[in-house]
Amino acid sequence: MNVVYGILKLLGALGLFLYGMTMMSEALQKVAGDKLRSFLAAMTSNAFKRILTGLCVTAIIQSSSATTVMVVSFVNAGLLSLSQSIGVIMGANIGTTVTAWLLALLGFQGSLSSITIPLIGFGFVFMMCKSKKKKSIGEMIIGFALLFLGLEFLKNSVPDLNHSPQVIEFIRKWSSYGNWSIILYVLIGTVLTIIMQSSAATIALTLVMCNNGWLPFEYCAAMVLGENIGTTITANLAAMVANASGKRAARAHTIFNLFGVIWVVTLFHPFLKLVSWVIMGLGMDNPLMSGASNTSLLCSIAMMHSLFNICNTMILVWFTPQIVSIVTRLVKSPKEEEVYRLQYIQGGPLSTAELSLGQAKEEILHFVQLCRKQYGYAREALNTTDNQKFEDLYRKLEHYELITDHVEFEIAKYLNSLSEGVLSDESARRQQAMYKIISELESLGDSGFNMGRILQRRNVHNTTFDQTMLKKLNYMMDLLDKGFNAMETNLKLGYDHITDISNAQDAEQNINEYRNNLKEEHLLNLENNSYGYLTGVYYMDFINECEHVGDFMINISEAIIEIK
Questions:
Q1: Which residues lie below 8 Å from residue 528, measured CB to CB, with a gap of 6+?
Q2: The domain containing residue 204 runs over which residues?
Q3: How far apart are the first and last CA of the chain?
Q4: Looking at residues 495-506, what average pLDDT do you find?
Q5: 326 in the same domain as 221
Q6: DSSP for 378-445?
Q7: I need a surface site. Which of 132, 135, 333, 421 has the fewest CB within 10 A?
C-alpha cells in the first residue's frame, strides 16, 4: 500500500510541476504575444539572428516545444522558409537550457514552499484585475510558483535509497553494462520525454535523481541526451496535419538533435571532461570525482545540456543547406493538392491567439489567389465560342463558388477559435477586419459564378456578343485585374505598413466611370438598334456584376486601413 501511495505521490508531484510549467509558459506567451509576433516576423537571412531569435523566444516562454510547434506552423503558413526555421530551431534548443539552469540554481537551494505560497497569493491579486494583461501576469506568477512547488514535492516524493536496498541493486544492475549502459540511459531519457511531452519535466526528474544520489553524473548526462531526442516528438505530432514544408521543419528538428546525440555519445567521456573542466573553471567541484557537492552536480547537468546544444549548433549551422536537402528528400511534395484544401491554417492555431493572426493573413492571401483563378476562368468563358469548353469552364466557376464558401467558413471558424485566447485591442481590430475581408472575398466568389450564369443564360437564348462588345468587356476585366492587384498589394502590406489606399480607390473609380460610360452608350445603342434587347440585357448584367466586384475589392482595402 505504501508503494502505491509513493507512486501516486510522485505522479502527483510531477503533474503539479507540469501544470505549473504549462501555465507559466502560456501566460508568458500571452503577455509577450505582440512582441513575439513582430520578433519572429523580422527574420532575415542572417543565421546568427535566426539562432538568437529562437534562443530569446524559448528563454522568454520557457518551452522549446512551444517554440518548435510555432516554427512548424510558421513554415506551414509560409511565414518562414525552411532554412530560416532550422536556424530558429537551433536557437530554441539553446534557449531551452535556461529551464535546466533555473531548476539547478533555484529549485534545490533549501525549501521553496515558504516562498511559493506567498507568490500564489500575489499572483491571485493580479488575477482579480479586469485587465487581460494583468490577469496573464497573475497566471505567469502562479505558474512559476506551482512549478517550484511541484519540484519541492518531487524532491520529497523520491524515496531515500538508504532505506531501499532493492532500488540500489536495481540501479547497479542497469549501470553495469559499460558503454551499453550509457545508450540504455539515453533511451530511458528519450522514452520518459516522449511519455511526458516535456523535456523540462524529464530534466527536473533527472536533477532530482542526481540530487538524491540515485544516479551518478555520467548517467544523468546520458538521460539529458535522450531528453533532447524525446522533445522532438511534439513538433512531429504537430506536423502530422501540416503541409510538406511544415513536416520538413519538424524532421529537421529531429535530425539536428539525433545527429548531436550520436556524436556526443561517440565522444561521451571526452565531452564530459570538457563539462567538468568548465565547471571547475567556475570554482566548483569536479562532477566526475566522488564526493562532489550536489550544487556542482546539478550545475554540471545544466552545463552539459547547454554545451551539448551550443556545440551542436556551432557544428550544424554550417550545414543548413544539407539539412534542407535531406528533409526535402525525406518528405516529398504532393504531386497535386486539392484546390479547396486550406494551405496554411490546417495545422490549427499557434500557441497564442496573437501569433495565429499572421497565419490567418497568409490563408486570406491564398483566398485572394483562388478568387483570381476563378476570374481567369470567367474571362475564358466570356471569350470562348466552343460550347464544350464553355461547359467545362462553367463547372469550374460553379466549383470555385463552392470553394470560396468553404474557405470563408473555415477561416471564420479558425478566427472564432482565437477568441478563446487573450487578444490585445489592436489584434482584436485585426480579427474583426479579417471577418469583413473573408466575407467580401466570398462575395467575389459569388460574383464570379454569377458571371458564368449570365453567360450561360445568354447561350441558352442563342445570343452572342459581337467583337466590339467583347473588346469593351475585356477592357472591363482588365480594370478588375488592376483592382485585384491593388487589393492584394494592400493585403500583403498589412495595416502596419500601409499609408493610404489610393491605389484601390483609383481602381474602383475607374471601374465605376467605365461602367457609367458603357451604360450611357448602351442606351444609345438600343435606340439605334445596334444589337437586340436581350443581348443588351446580358451585356449590361455582366458589366454591372463587374462593378459589384469593384465594390467588394475596395471594401477589403478599407477594412485594412480601418484597423489603424
A1: none
A2: 2-161+176-330
A3: 64
A4: 86
A5: yes
A6: HHHHHH---HHHHHHHHHHHHHHHHHHHHHHHHHHHHHHHHTTS---HHHHHHHHHHHHHHHHHHHHH
A7: 333
